[in-house]
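Example S7 (structure tokens).
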């Protein structure tokens, strides 16, 4: 099956050969072809070029994209889309003046989501989560990471990860699973944190590995949650099962999470709203991708990750949604790209690179998605007619996506 797009106003993010990630100044360059054609063969990008030298091709179908821009789908490397119920009561409490921390201390927050999730069936969680996955696919996401962490007790964590496994089986996009058992201290373990960490390591982790339910390990390394020592212990244990770290660090306090992540060869360190010079220094000469989650900053009214400090130091940066019921109930990568430009002073080129190829790197998927490269999956966003690609982040909150193609097929 050959599908040819012609008269593409601009084809974005062309990488031949592909790169794994982009760092520092490289992020300011977004290679494009104006007035382009693109050929899809089955599920892959087969070829592309300028309309000025369109070769003899006999496609099964040709679509004229006059006025429209084509780019690779978004790569959302940090989500919690498998959850049950919602937390809009806490939203109202925060508007009335309570902080995220105060709500958590009253039994709300992660424990609130855990209670709801523990009580409902795997089928019901699957139904609610599949709906969210379909929603983000329509919004242009073509590869996604999903975490556990609202189960906390063994059976519920396994239930969450089995839901992720079922999503992988039923939806044909790259989905990566992360085991986030140490997301909060369950009530059963109040004042027994050491015991809980040992429980995660000795009871839940082996079961997750046994059923092959996760590729990555995560922990909420934060004051009031888990320490650097807890983090180090868990990451070392998970390494024995080949689970690479992708961890929550520096969301509210900088306590050394970046350093423990880098020391354990983390694939990514995520959040980074509170970032110190020494954290930036630790990331240099590492293989670890810093990931910013501006939707969370918007929703919780906390600082935005200092993108300029990171990129100007020569480091890479990825953008993700953090889609979850407590701190970022939105999986809209288009809005994330806008926020990165408006609030984090990233240029449209940097933001698009961060949301595509660098997001792919943060899920170990750069060889498959994240750029227009021959042989990569034909996971593509086709915009409505727009004046330029900067118009996408500029027109924040509007949806200028006309169609999404996954594996060469329109969804
Ligand atoms: O990434 N920070 C930890 N975990 C989530 C929020 C969890 C929740 O509030 O449900 C986050 O922000
Ligand atoms: Fe998160």
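Recovered sequence:
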């Amino acid at each position: 099956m050959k599908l040819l797009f012609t008269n593409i106003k601009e084809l974005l993010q062309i990488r031949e050969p592909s790169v794994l990630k982009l760092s520092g100044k490289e992020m300011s360059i977004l290679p494009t072809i104006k007035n382009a054609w693109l050929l899809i063969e089955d599920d892959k990008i087969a070829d592309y070029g300028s309309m000025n030298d369109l070769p003899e091709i006999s496609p099964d179908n040709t679509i004229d994209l006059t006025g429209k821009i084509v780019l690779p789908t978004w790569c959302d490397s940090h989500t919690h889309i498998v959850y049950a119920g919602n937390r809009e009561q806490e939203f109202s409490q925060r508007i009335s003046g309570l902080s995220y921390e105060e709500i958590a201390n009253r039994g709300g927050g992660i424990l609130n989501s855990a209670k709801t999730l523990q009580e409902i069936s795997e089928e019901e969680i699957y139904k609610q989560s599949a709906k969210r996955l379909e929603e983000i696919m329509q919004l242009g996401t073509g590869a996604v990471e999903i975490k556990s962490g609202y189960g906390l007790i063994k059976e519920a964590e396994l239930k969450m990860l089995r839901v992720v496994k079922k999503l992988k089986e039923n939806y044909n996009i790259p989905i990566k699973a992360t085991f986030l058992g140490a997301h909060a201290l369950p009530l059963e373990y109040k004042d027994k944190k050491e015991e809980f960490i040992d429980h995660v390591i000795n009871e839940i982790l082996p079961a997750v590995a046994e059923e092959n339910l996760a590729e990555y390990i995560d922990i909420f390394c934060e004051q009031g949650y888990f320490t650097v020592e807890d983090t180090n212990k868990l990451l070392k244990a998970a390494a024995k099962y080949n689970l690479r770290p992708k961890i929550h660090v520096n969301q509210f306090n900088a306590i050394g999470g970046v350093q423990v992540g880098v020391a354990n060869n983390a694939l990514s360190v995520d959040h980074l709203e509170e970032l110190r010079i020494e954290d930036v220094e630790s990331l240099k000469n590492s293989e670890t991708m810093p990931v910013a989650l501006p939707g969370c900053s918007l929703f919780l009214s906390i600082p935005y990750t200092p993108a300029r400090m990171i990129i100007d130091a020569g480091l890479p940066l990825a953008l993700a949604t953090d889609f979850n019921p407590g701190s970022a109930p939105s999986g809209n990568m288009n809005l994330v790209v806008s926020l990165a430009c408006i609030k984090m002073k990233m240029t449209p080129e940097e933001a698009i690179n961060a949301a595509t190829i660098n997001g792919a790197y943060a899920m170990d998927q750069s060889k498959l998605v994240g750029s227009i490269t021959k042989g990569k999956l034909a996971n593509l966003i086709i915009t409505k007619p727009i004046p330029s690609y900067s118009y996408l982040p500029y027109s924040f909150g509007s949806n200028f996506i006309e169609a999404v193609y996954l594996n060469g097929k329109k969804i």
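Notes on this example. Residues 295 and 336 are 6 Å apart (CA to CA).
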